[in-house]
């Protein structure tokens, strides 16, 4: 039997060792940092530029990795490593502001993140001390009221658009929802303020007006998220239930909604997280106060975003105390939003349709 000659495989070239990219990265950063240190020692720069050293080190790493991969692995693998490096760099650049923001808020907000902050209001507090319990209470009350208003309206609207909506009316509703999605939040606040001024007189600012302004912002978000989830439900499920003689309303109640409840719940929680940090509509519709107020229909009501804003722009003689309270309020708001996102994920996992046998 004649021996067969193996064909050369142009892609089966050498491979870089697994730790090689990391070694190149560490070496590039070390060389770049050393260069910037020497520039500082020589007096070329006033101080050590850490950001510049990182950027130069990243560029040096990309070049060295590309050249090394080209020489050892070939052009195809080298191009792949270069694109991977660029994509990773873009991801880190996009993530850097978020990381910087979180670190700044945690470091600055921890100065007043204590029991007093969560048990005291700002009534009769001028300088140091006090807390934001009145603002936290107002935020919870107005946000929950907005959810009670917007979730039924948004969910029923999405059910109509998906299950019943045909013709000009459905197109008009879709158009209006798209328009409401893009309106500035201050417009929602002005709408609520104007509506309650017409009903109860000029200058009326109450917590319920703030809740209505938040509901106006929430409704299109709930409609869009619920509509997308309802459309994901396979038509085969609807057709099978209808073929058995089940009325359409019962199909929606017993088949469509249970199948999509996880996504709908997630969308609702994300809509709440979207509006809980709004400042402009609450500043216009609900106003601000340093007193505790549990009544949505009487008197002005403070909210956490507005309290943070007021503490930052209206600093007294002891400005650091106001700044510390503002940072602590911002940290509390971030933690609330994070908690809502975690709850949304847990609810989505719990209510997700079980596909196992």
Under the CATH scheme, the architecture of the largest domain is Orthogonal Bundle
What is the H-and-E element order?
HHHHHHHHHHHHH
Instruction: State which percent range the strand residues make up.
Output: under 5%
Q: Indicate the CATH class of the largest domain.
A: Mainly Alpha
Give the low-pLDDT segments. Answer: 6-12
Summarize model confidence as the mean pLDDT. Answer: 86
Radius of gyration: 29 Å
Structure summary, number of beta strands: 0
Within CATH, the superfamily of the largest domain carries the name MetI-like
- What is the percent of helical residues? over 70%
What is the global morphology?
flat
Distance between the termini: 56 Å
Number of helices: 13
Task: Tell me what you see in this structure.
By secondary structure, the protein is mainly α. It has 2 domains: 20-100, no CATH class; 118-351, Orthogonal Bundle (MetI-like fold). The protein is built from 13 helices and no strands. It has helices at 20-41, 50-72, 75-109, 115-119, 133-164, 168-181, 185-200, 207-232, 235-243, 248-275, 280-285, 304-313, 319-351. α3 (75-109) packs across α13, α5 runs parallel beside α8 and α12 packs antiparallel against α13 (319-351). It starts with 19 loop residues before the first helix and ends in a 6-residue tail after the last helix. The model is unreliable at 6-12 (pLDDT under 50).
């Amino acid at each position: 039997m004649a021996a067969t000659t193996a064909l050369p495989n142009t892609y089966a070239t050498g491979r870089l060792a697994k730790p090689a990219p990391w070694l190149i990265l560490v070496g590039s950063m070390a060389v770049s940092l050393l260069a910037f240190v020497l520039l500082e020692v020589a007096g070329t720069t006033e101080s050590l530029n850490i950001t510049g050293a990182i950027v130069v080190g990243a560029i040096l790493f990309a070049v060295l990795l590309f050249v090394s991969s080209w020489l050892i692995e070939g052009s195809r693998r080298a191009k792949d490593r270069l694109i991977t490096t660029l994509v990773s760099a873009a991801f880190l650049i996009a993530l850097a502001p978020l990381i910087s923001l979180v670190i700044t808020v945690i470091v600055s907000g921890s100065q007043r993140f204590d029991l007093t902050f969560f048990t005291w209001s700002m009534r009769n507090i001028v300088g140091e001390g006090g807390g934001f319990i009145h603002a936290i209470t107002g935020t919870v009350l107005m946000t929950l009221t907005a959810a009670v208003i917007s979730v039924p309206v948004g969910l029923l609207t999405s059910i109509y658009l998906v299950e019943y909506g045909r013709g000009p009316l459905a197109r008009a509703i879709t158009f209006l929802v798209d328009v409401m999605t893009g309106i500035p939040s201050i417009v929602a606040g002005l709408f609520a303020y104007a509506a309650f001024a017409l009903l109860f007189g000029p200058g009326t600012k109450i917590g319920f007006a703030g809740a209505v302004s938040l509901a106006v912002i929430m409704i299109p978000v709930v409609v869009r998220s619920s509509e997308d989830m309802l459309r994901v439900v396979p038509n085969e499920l609807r057709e099978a239930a209808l073929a058995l003689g089940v009325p359409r309303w019962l199909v929606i109640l017993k088949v469509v909604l249970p199948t999509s409840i996880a996504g709908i719940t997630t969308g609702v929680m994300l809509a709440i997280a979207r509006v809980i940090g709004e400042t402009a509509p609450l500043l216009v519709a609900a106003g601000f106060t340093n007193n505790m107020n549990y009544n949505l229909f009487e008197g002005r009501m403070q909210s956490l975003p507005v309290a943070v804003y007021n503490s930052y722009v209206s600093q007294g003689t002891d400005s650091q105390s106001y700044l510390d309270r503002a940072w602590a309020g911002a940290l509390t708001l971030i933690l609330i939003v994070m908690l809502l996102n975690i709850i949304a994920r847990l609810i989505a996992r719990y209510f997700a349709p079980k596909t196992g046998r």
